[in-house]
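chain below, 321 aa
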Amino acid sequence: MFKVAITDFTFSSLEIEKGIIEAAGGQVVSGQCKTPELLIPLVSGVDAVITQFAPVNADVVRSMERARVIVRYGVGYDNVACDVARERKIPVCNIPDYCVDEVADHTLAFILAMTRHLRANCAKLLENEWGLGVEVDQMRALCDQTVGVIGLGRIGSAVVERLKPFRPKILVADPFVSAEAVAMQGCVLMTPEELLAESDVVTLHCPSTDITRGLINEQNLRSMKPGSILINVGRGDLIEQDALVSALKSGHLGAAALDVFDPEPLCADSPLLQMNNVVVSSHVASVSTKAIHRLRETAARLAVAAVRDEPLQNIVNQVGP
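prediction:
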């Protein structure tokens, strides 16, 4: 009987994973491990590891005596020491396509909420005042805006398709796509610096890497158009949060909508929660019943496939046959 460790999870049970793994002759061992010290004894002797937010750092990976795969519940995988897993020839797999529609929908909801300033207008009425919650010039029609999309992967592309009926000008920054491919989607390819300087709305859809962490920092915020809007449903560490707060307080940045933060959860006393030009949600852009079921089912099937020595999809750390 093989063993699969599930390090942590935010679901009410593990019935989906257990059903798939046990039907294949395996056993699930699980915990809610938030530290390497708790993770090491859980994963040391298992055949596969599934993880959500737990810190699967270098020491944790090195403790895995016979693991055939590490599967991340989700798109990002920056909580896993992928380089050490590669050294030990353990493939790391993510699940990049389980929530494309949900995150793209959430992004569009954020963009519309901020261009129409729904929070400020709602707050005005809740205070028993009838009228605009912002100045007239802050109420925008999306067709008059230039929207910059940083990252044209699955989700970025889905956001572009949702934006098109609203008729904004769409700019794209992504080093892995060609100008021709971007033009075929009706967009214009630019460098990140050019995009930030020319966009009225900037939405982030790139992974967290050594290059992209802190992409939106004090310097780049200053280069953005006065009054522009920033959307982040990607990874929290793409933005330097203190610099963001300063740009919002100064008025240089007009508004922000955020589903992800660094660190998480967002502190209860964060200034972001007190601003009428900010909308936040608690890392829930990916959520729907269908998406969560697909995420969990795919993770379990990847673990079983690895134990059976079957080909694996979505390996992110260049470990393969």
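The two ends are 24 Å apart (CA to CA). The first helix runs from residue 15 to 23.
thats it, cya
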